[in-house]
Amino acid sequence: MELCSGQTNSFLENGLDQYLPSNIDIVHGPACAVCAAPIALIDAAIELANRENVILCASFELLRLKGSVCDLLEIKAQGRDVRVVHTPLDSLAIAREEPGKKVVFLSVGFEMAAQSNALAAWQAKRLGLKNYFLLASQCYFPAVVKHILAVPGSKVQGIFGLSSVCSVTGMVDFEPISKRYQVPIVITGHAPTDLLEGIRLCVNLLENKNASVENLFRGSVSRDGNREGKSLIKEVFQLGDRYWRGIGVVEQGGYHLRPEFQQFDAERAFELQFEAKGDNQACISREILLGFKKPTDCPLFGKGCRPGNAMGSTMVSSEGACASYYNFKNDRQLLA
User: Fold this and answer.
1) Of the candidates 255, 225, 245, 263, which has an alpha carbon nearest to the alpha carbon of residue 310?
2) pTM of model > 0.85
3) pLDDT in tens, 65-101
4) Which domains does the chain have, with CATH numbers?
5) Quick one: CA dihedral 51, 53, 59, 64, positive or negative?
């Protein structure tokens, strides 16, 4: 199983699946943070954007992510103050410039996002800001990997590590997981040659019954990761259960603000109520994300469910597995 959307795209775009022997199968795990964002989170962001004196900030991709009824672009078109920003520090600057407004930064992501959001919250506390808030779904990726391998009947025998996540966590957070489930984890890049080398190494580890974490991405990943970044994350956030769209609740699967930083928690400050909402009942996104099935196994794929009309988590973003299959496998006539 590869866990990186960039690897999914590269794997399919270059047709590597056509060259693998029949006894090697690549499945596509939960690689996309946007796909993991709960529908309820977008609904909450829309509710906040509709309130008076609120500025809702987010990346453009999140503005296009549909909630139960509409997306934030539609709310922006109705005249609400919804702004595109690139980083949480951009929204922090807006909060300083507009002290009479409540500025909410909507964020989804893994460790890289948690690192940036931790810096923004830490800076907001240092500056004594009272009008900056974070509405975030931040997943702790090692817990998600553990969740996948712990599912009864899991078929996953080897994993490609997410290089961007590992640049922060390092290899050390994955080592006990590899040892417990006796599954090798190989950290590799996105290029076709990187993927092929990763497959070769993973197969070699399996043949030698060596369940270890190996690093082929040494330029940006070390065993201990980004110690300063991890320290900042630990100072601002604590781990707790997190709902992952398409999978469900992952134990200790996400970052939550510590008590000393909870004044920046939009959920608490605005007394938001989250109601978990699943995908279309016919969608098999859960089975895809856990490695049991492929996008083309879904009865909705390429028919009712397609980019722009997603019915499940794995199609809502161009980085999702189903969207990648739709974009790169159309020319192979898999959309019967």
Assistant:
1) 245
2) yes
3) 999 899 999 999 999 999 999 999 999 999 999 999 9
4) 34-140+226-269 (3.40.50.11740)
5) positive
